[in-house]
Specification:
The chain is globular. Helix 6 runs antiparallel to helix 7. The chain has a domain at 22-207. Helices cover 52% and strands 8% of the residues. By secondary structure, the chain is mainly alpha-helical. It has a two-stranded antiparallel sheet with strand order 1-2.
Length: 316
Amino acid sequence: MGAFLAYIPSPPVNGVSIGPIRLHFYGLMIALGVIVAVWMAQRQWTRIGGRSGAFSSLAVWAVPAGLVGARVYSLCTSWNVDTQGHWWKAFAVWDGGLGIWGGVLVGVAGGLYAAHRLRLPWAPLMDCVAPALPLAQAIGRIGNYFNQELYGWRTNLPWGVKIDHALIGTTTASHYAPPGVYQPTFLYEMIGDVLVAVLVVWAMRRFRIRRGYAFAIYSGGYTFVRFWTEYMRIDPAHIYLGLRLNDWTCILVFTCSVLALLIRGRAPAGDDVAGAPLDVHPSRYGPATGAAAPAHAGSSAGSPSGSATATPDLAG
């Protein structure tokens, strides 16, 4: 019993078969993460006065775009590892190989395009997504455990993860890592992602964050966590000046996020703040429902600007 508790055991399987269909836990965790993210973002959106179901409509564009972006980024930076010399494995996403940078960049772009089509204001949408994304990433990291991937140095810590068949690729060949106990960097990142989600929610309630800039808290917090977990990883990666490519990406995104918060992140008096109701400034965002704009918005109830026909932005 004591030996068993000396490490986290490796999973005996990485999926389940239902008839001819094979369901990989990696994909199931990603799907669960997407569901939780859409639910949480929608909850935030409804809380500030947005229309119910808006994020389900946005997800139709954002989720496929994010998956494509994540896979393309991974293939561009780790082609040999992802394909193992077989081009058709570029489509085998269930084996892993999704780059978070491409997923967030292209996924957010897809979501913003959908928001434009639905005439939804982008800034409060970004605030609602900010705490939801790290939660989705935390759930997705559980899939790395079942795939036995993305771990760090060897360790004798009691929370190390036992690896017995993790495939490590190189630019010339693939080989199995020696069986042993390794740092569970995916677990560290999962815990860090949850803390980043809590940080975003806390910061929006504690400080006057300008509308739309809560996303910079997420990007800064996540890259801070990712830098250290990436530094510990031993899977093949492009190395520049002693650091892995993703570490340099973390430094760049973290720096930009902090500068954005310092220069533009604090909302001045009278400006919209992250998490505030959408009808604080109807002239900018329109009322949150199909009802007429309040009289203090500068128009009478009988004027065209106060009618329900002038509110497609948020009613969607």
